[in-house]
TrEMBL record:
<keyword id="KW-0732">Signal</keyword>
<dbReference type="GO" id="GO:0005794">
    <property type="term" value="C:Golgi apparatus"/>
</dbReference>
<dbReference type="InterPro" id="IPR003859">
    <property type="entry name" value="Galactosyl_T"/>
</dbReference>
<feature type="signal peptide">
    <location>
        <begin position="1"/>
        <end position="24"/>
    </location>
</feature>
<dbReference type="InterPro" id="IPR029044">
    <property type="entry name" value="Nucleotide-diphossugar_trans"/>
</dbReference>
<feature type="compositionally biased region" description="Polar residues">
    <location>
        <begin position="252"/>
        <end position="266"/>
    </location>
</feature>
<protein>
    <recommendedName>
        <fullName>Galactosyltransferase C-terminal domain-containing protein</fullName>
    </recommendedName>
</protein>
<feature type="domain" description="Galactosyltransferase C-terminal">
    <location>
        <begin position="97"/>
        <end position="173"/>
    </location>
</feature>
<feature type="region of interest" description="Disordered">
    <location>
        <begin position="244"/>
        <end position="266"/>
    </location>
</feature>
<dbReference type="GO" id="GO:0005975">
    <property type="term" value="P:carbohydrate metabolic process"/>
</dbReference>
<dbReference type="InterPro" id="IPR027791">
    <property type="entry name" value="Galactosyl_T_C"/>
</dbReference>
<keyword id="KW-0808">Transferase</keyword>
<dbReference type="GO" id="GO:0008378">
    <property type="term" value="F:galactosyltransferase activity"/>
</dbReference>
<dbReference type="Pfam" id="PF02709">
    <property type="entry name" value="Glyco_transf_7C"/>
</dbReference>
Length: 266
């Protein structure tokens, strides 16, 4: 199999907020509308993404690699989900991964195994599960595969308790689907491959180029913005390209390999 390592020239944004208590809040987006820290809301508009499609899992892995020496745990934080209730804890997840935007509180996602949106996880546990799969270009499913990783590592997921608000007023979900369209296309054999547990890629296989670092501060909250270009092996994951390319023969080989992997167990 030929390895292509194509880097991008335009920009993925990976937004990281650091505070003094050794915690990192990290949000990722290809079209950042808002980002939040615990007590303040900052707004940031992005530029365009490159020839590869958005990859939330890889961007979280990259953010972790860049952050892990300055924090003990991370908050993976969707940029379009703003916490409205001060009762929500962002403290160190002593017991295990802490899913802040639980199915009982998230405005849209109510299935039991949902772990997307906002999750706090210690560096130790993130490394234990080898972070996220890098295979998920486009919108969706990377969090469900992450759930399978947590289960396989026997990590129990903790969620907020005794919260006085509900699905309609715990979070502001600010995402205008018409303005910021989700990239939901399933290209090549993406659909079947990404329905399966990925045991090949993760935190330790994420490769990227760090293009710029911006140090910024809004209302005394310091944060950094990293512009990174992630790598895509178009032989293994041809669906990272926006348009099907001509390398379909190698993608068929890839398909046969991955079909031997078991189903996601949920
Ligand atoms: C990455 O970690 C996994 C275990 O989570 C291991 O099986 C794999 O060999 C590692 N890959 C590399 C390239 O280090
Ligand atoms: C959520 O809480 C608000 C404020 O207490 C209340 O008005 C609303 O009816 C509740 N919604 C649901 C679905 O329970």
């Amino acid at each position: 199999m030929i390895l292509f390592s194509l880097f991008t020239f335009a920009i993925f944004w990976n937004l990281l907020i650091l505070n003094k208590e050794s915690k990192c809040i990290q949000s990722t987006s290809s079209a950042v509308v808002h980002q939040t820290s615990i007590n303040s809301i900052a707004r940031q508009q992005t530029r365009i993404v490159d020839r590869f499609r958005f990859n939330r899992g890889s961007l979280i892995n990259v953010g972790f690699q860049l952050a892990q020496n300055s924090c003990t745990y991370i908050a993976m934080h969707d940029v379009d989900l703003l916490p409205l209730n001060d009762q929500l804890s962002y403290e160190f997840p002593y017991n295990g991964p802490f899913h802040v935007s639980s199915p009982s509180l998230h405005p849209n996602y109510h299935y039991k195994t949902y772990v997307g949106g906002i999750m706090l996880i210690s560096n130790e546990h993130f490394k234990l599960v080898n972070g996220f799969s890098n295979n998920y270009f486009g919108w969706g499913l990377e969090d469900d595969e992450f759930y399978a990783r947590l289960m396989e590592a026997n990590l129990k997921i903790y969620r907020p308790e005794n919260i006085q608000t509900n699905q309609s007023n715990t979070f502001a979900h600010i995402h205008d689907r018409n303005v910021y369209k989700r990239d939901t296309a399933k290209l090549f054999n993406q659909k079947e491959v990404t329905r399966k547990r990925d045991r090949k890629t993760g935190l330790n296989t994420t490769k990227f180029n760090l293009l710029n670092i911006y140090h910024m501060s809004i209302e005394n909250i310091e944060f950094r913005i990293f512009n990174v270009a992630i790598e895509c092996n178009v032989d293994r994951t041809p669906w990272c390209l926006k348009q099907p390319s001509s390398s379909s023969s190698s993608s068929i080989k890839f398909k046969n390999q991955l079909q031997q992997q078991p189903q996601l167990n949920h």
